[in-house]
Write a structure and sequence with these properties.
The complex is a heterotrimer of chains A (372), B (246) and C (293). By secondary structure, chain A is an all-alpha fold. Helix content of chain A is 68%, strand content 1%. Chain A has a domain at 36-247. Chain A has helices spanning 2-32, 36-62, 69-86, 98-116, 121-141, 164-187, 189-206, 211-237, 242-245, 248-261, 267-286, 291-307, 312-324; strands at residues 151-152, 239-240. In chain A, helix 3 crosses helix 8 (211-237), helix 6 packs across helix 7 and helix 10 (248-261) crosses helix 11. Chain A starts with a helix and ends in a 48-residue tail after the last helix. Mean pLDDT of chain A is 80; it is low at 335-372. By secondary structure, chain B is α/β, with parallel strands linked by helices. Chain B has two domains: 1-76 and 153-162 and 175-246, P-loop containing nucleotide triphosphate hydrolases (Rossmann fold, 3-Layer(aba) Sandwich); 81-150. Chain B is 34% helix and 25% strand. In chain B, the strands form two sheets. A six-stranded mixed sheet of chain B has the order 6-7-8-3-9-10, with helices on both faces. In chain B, strands 2-1-4-5 form a four-stranded antiparallel sheet, covered by helices on one side. In chain B, 48% of the residues are buried. The model of chain B has no long low-confidence stretch (mean pLDDT 85). With 293 residues, chain C is mainly alpha-helical. A two-stranded antiparallel ribbon of chain C has the order 1-2. The chains are: A mainly alpha (372), B alpha/beta (246), C mainly alpha (293). At the A-B interface, helix 7 of A face helix 2, helix 4, helix 5 and helix 6 of B.
């Protein structure tokens, strides 16, 4: 199988180099395009790359669709705002509050998850929506959150020309961080358990998977990352209000992004965010009326779901596979051409790959074929 | 021979249907036990109660003398009871190897090696990298058997292992069970295929309407009047030859 | 104080009836098609706008106008189901139907903004603002009519589901789609028609909402859908009777809390949902989660 092994290595090498190029390009973006208008796009896009990837870590892997990520986003924003105000933090030091935002997100996720993850999937979605509205209402009603006027962020007296850049790089770091985490999870036993839960939770439970713990852990990781970028977003926009910090469109957008790119894949949410967020920003700027923007967004949703239901990456992957396997025999990918030595199963060597059962040993009545 | 698994007076009803009625079953360590009965007699329900997928309304379940009634499925599994399902349940979007790794403690090389051995044992090792959803029905049954085995349970509950597969695969499965039994594993098998049960099992229990109507070695049970009644209905002619299977 | 409370309870029950009208369509669609129709909120608003146009432009009375809006929205519902929901397949069907219905909601909302603008509208008629005075309580006519309508509708739906052949097909599809197909039921048709019925019923809810909410605009859909979702979860997904009970219960609670603190009335809604789910994950009258997800 030398051909196959070296081909696989080549593919892996190509993937890593492509990744390195991408990261380098991202790092150099503000240098090559210093225009604040463009780096503004960069900041928002990277924030959404992080948020969509974070959503994917939980919802994509476990199959539990959450429409409540805005809870963590807004809480992170408010946490930074409240801390900055109460602890009199100003200047560059505000960035040190970002880990606090992540922590707040994680802390909220625990009770949230303990309640929400006990119910079945459909109910779970609605519970996340309900909790979202509870948080939005709390932000409106409590005084320490500034009520309906929200909170301002401490002013940063930086140069206008390069103002965006620190935000950009922090957002980039978060994005790389959560993508790395997602990758590690997928390779680890943790990721396997999550995906097993997605396929058949009860069966997974019956095989020793501690479903609640696994789901809660993923939920918390997802929340921490989302909270972090929520805090960053707040510092960037220098303000947060109940309806902007807790915005239903936020959740819909990240779900769409993950969907467009490919649910459950790692590159999927990244790709989706890279495509959609700049588009959304552009629409907001162009059509300040907002109505066309909504109609267009809805239409794009529909188009994506109807025509590319599995997302770009799985669909593209399938096309590639179809192209590269033209004319080959239909063997499962990676399977050896002949069955390996079978120490205990006497039918093994006689078994042709692809055939389900060996010919009957004794000449009894013709084998009764029972198919699915 | 000590008793490995025992249920005592288990009651379970769903709405108005009494699925299990004072069900008392006893499995000895190291034997291959069969559980038969007409459709609706409660066989799968009993499995569900034993493995924690259903809560018993009353009665107890004992494993090696220890009460395990109403224990959650993951803990039942950890205690050493493995189980397959009537309609095979595998993880379709995971590869065959990944399916095997779910019940394992880790995904390290040692576990992969053990998983591979089990796959080879049931004969589907060639598919280890294929998505489990692409397997045929018979292959899925083998996969389910394999991943139940990889966790090295003491007792294995098989729900219709021979259902819906052709003859040679049935023999294959029977051989696997014999080999594992020779290595010390206990089995409790629900089956409708009488040849399979009678040829394989040391001891057979017959359920009808949720309660045990007969228990004993296959030859004794197959000629028991109550068993025939259960399968064929009441009032059969006295000295009818029971014949092969039901 | 006591009269305030009693009035609040009465108000709650009456408003609950209105919400029941809106929630019934949603739970029916979920029960049969296994879809959470996020567009339900904006469809209610659409119904309100349709009644508004009929009333203001064509001077057709609110209740009379229903004879037009209900069939119109029924057709719309069928169209949506056939065009956007039926083609969905695959493992991620839940997420997909969610996105699709949300997309439809966005489009409808955008269109409403274009056509009607963002300002508040209101449905008015002579009987909307007057009430009958019974035992010291004020019972607005519109609410009484609405409540009566809700009861009539629920009864009609029950009759449809339990006494007609179509209803049997619907219930069969609800329980086991494959089995229903095997006995010759055209489940695609059942799905489309049921969605249509769910949306058609919403036209009535829309009219009532428009008349009783004290003003509505295209943005009203968000708050509505979240409340409706909470209601049908509480009542048990798929249970029509449950939707009625949950509506009345929840709106009564909200009404009572409103007496004490208007700010928190809304939040109580969701908090109650969370609380109930902690205790009983299938809602008041919900069936066990027997359906494989």
């Amino acid at each position: 199988m030398k051909g196959g092994a070296s081909r696989a290595r080549l593919a892996a090498g190509a993937r890593w180099s492509a990744l390195a190029v991408l990261v380098a390009a991202a790092l150099l973006f503000p240098v090559v395009f210093p225009d604040p208008v463009l780096t503004n796009y960069g900041v928002f896009t990277l924030i959404f790359v992080t948020a969509a990837s974070a959503w994917n870590v939980f919802s994509g892997f476990s199959g539990y669709i959450s429409l409540g990520q805005a809870v963590f986003f807004g809480s992170g924003a408010y946490a930074v705002g409240i801390a900055a105000r109460d602890w009199q933090v100003s200047g560059v030091a505000v960035f040190a509050l970002l880990p606090l935002a992540a922590l707040v997100g994680a802390a909220i996720a625990v009770p949230f998850g303990l309640v929400a993850l006990r119910v079945r999937r459909h109910t779970f979605i609605v519970v996340t929506i309900a909790v979202f509205f509870i948080f939005q209402l709390m932000a409106f009603n409590f005084s320490f959150t500034g009520g309906s006027s929200g909170l301002p962020a401490p002013f940063l007296s930086w140069q206008a020309a390069s103002y965006n850049n620190p935000f950009y790089y922090i957002a980039l770091a978060s994005a790389i961080g959560i993508i790395a985490v997602a990758w590690l999870i997928r390779r680890a036993r943790f990721g396997l358990q999550l995906r097993a839960i997605r396929d058949d939770e009860d069966r997974a439970r019956g095989l020793g998977v501690r479903a609640m713990r696994v789901k809660l852990a993923a939920f918390t990781v997802s929340a921490a990352a989302t909270g972090l970028v929520g805090g960053l977003w707040f510092l960037y926009l220098t303000q947060v209000e109940p309806q902007s910090g807790f915005d239903p469109l936020f959740d819909l957008s990240i779900v769409l992004m993950a969907f467009l790119g490919g649910l459950g894949t790692i590159a999927g949410p990244v790709l989706g965010a890279l495509i959609i967020e700049p588009g959304q920003l552009y629409l907001t700027i162009r059509f300040t009326n907002g109505y066309y923007g909504e109609i267009l967004l809805g239409a794009i949703f529909l188009a994506v779901v109807l025509f590319m239901p599995r997302g770009i990456i799985p669909t593209a992957g399938e096309w590639i596979r179809r192209l590269t396997t033209r004319g080959r025999s239909a063997l499962p990918v990676g399977a050896p051409q002949a069955p390996g030595p079978v120490p205990r199963g006497p039918e093994g060597p006689r078994r042709r790959p692809g055939a389900e059962d060996p010919p009957p040993e004794a000449s009894e009545a013709p084998a009764r074929e029972a198919r699915q | 021979m000590s008793v490995l698994l025992r249920t005592e007076g288990v009651h379970k009803s769903y709405g108005g249907v009494q699925a299990l009625d004072a069900c008392t079953v006893q499995i000895e360590e190291g034997e291959v036990a069969g559980l038969i009965g007409p459709n609706g007699s409660g066989k799968t329900t009993l499995f569900n109660v034993i493995t924690g997928y259903a809560k018993a309304d009353a009665g107890e379940v004992y494993l090696s003398g220890r009460k395990i009634t109403n224990t959650a499925p993951d803990k039942v599994f950890a205690l050493g009871i493995g189980r397959t399902f009537q309609l095979t349940r595998i993880f379709p979007s995971l590869t065959v190897m990944e399916n095997m790794l779910v019940p394992c403690r880790s995904t390290r090389a040692a576990d992969r090696k053990r998983a591979m051995e089990q796959l080879e044992f049931v004969g589907i090792a060639g598919y280890h990298a294929a998505p489990a959803g692409s397997l045929s029905y018979g292959q899925r049954k083998l996969l389910e058997l394999a991943y139940v085995l990889v966790a090295d349970p003491a007792i294995i509950l098989l729900d219709e292992p021979a259902g819906g597969v052709n003859l040679s695969l049935v023999n294959n499965i029977a051989d696997r069970i014999r080999e594992l039994n020779a290595a010390g594993k206990t089995f409790l098998i629900v089956e409708h295929n009488m040849e399979f049960v009678m040829g394989l099992c040391d001891q057979v229990t017959v359920l009808d309407s949720g309660t045990v109507v007969a228990a004993g070695p296959p030859d004794v049970v197959r000629t028991d009047r109550r068993v025939l009644d259960a399968y064929l209905g009441e009032d059969i002619v006295d000295d009818a030859d029971p014949g092969e299977g039901a | 104080m006591a009269t305030q409370i009693y009035q609040a309870i009465v108000d709650g029950i009456l408003v609950g009836g209105v919400y029941a009208l809106m929630a019934v369509g949603l739970t029916l669609i979920f029960g049969v098609l296994d879809i959470i129709n996020i567009a339900q909120g904006i469809l209610v608003v659409l119904g309100a706008y349709l009644s508004y146009s009929l009333s203001v432009q064509l001077h057709i009375g609110l209740f009379l106008g229903l004879l037009i809006t209900v069939p119109a929205m029924f057709v719309l519902g069928v169209a949506i189901q056939v065009a956007f929901i039926r083609p969905l397949r695959g493992q991620e069907r839940t997420a997909m139907t969610l996105l699709v219905t949300y997309a439809v909601a966005l489009i409808i909302e955008g269109v409403l903004y274009r056509v009607y603008g963002p300002d508040d509208r209101e449905l008015s008629a002579s009987y909307v603002t007057s009430s009958v005075h019974v035992l010291g309580f004020y019972l607005p006519y519109i609410y009484l009519l609405g409540f009566g309508l809700a009861v009539v509708l629920v009864v009609a739906l029950y009759l449809l589901l339990y006494r007609t052949r179509f209803g049997r097909s619907v219930r069969a599809t609800m329980q086991d789609r494959t089995a229903a197909r095997l006995v010759g039921i055209d489940t695609s048709r059942v799905a489309a028609l049921t969605f249509g019925v769910g949306v058609g019923v919403t036209a009535v809810g829309g009219m009532m909402f428009g008349a009783t909410n004290g003003g509505f605009n295209p943005n009203s859909g968000y708050d509505l859908i979240s409340r409706l979702l909470a209601i049908i979860i509480l009542g048990g997904l798929g249970s029509i009777g449950g939707a009625l009970v949950a509506s009345v219960f929840m709106l009564t609670v909200v009404s009572l809390v409103d007496v004490w603190s208007p700010n928190w009335a809304n939040a109580v809604f969701y908090a109650a949902l969370v609380l109930v789910l902690v205790i009983r994950p299938t809602g008041f009258l919900g069936r066990q989660a027997v359906r494989a997800e």
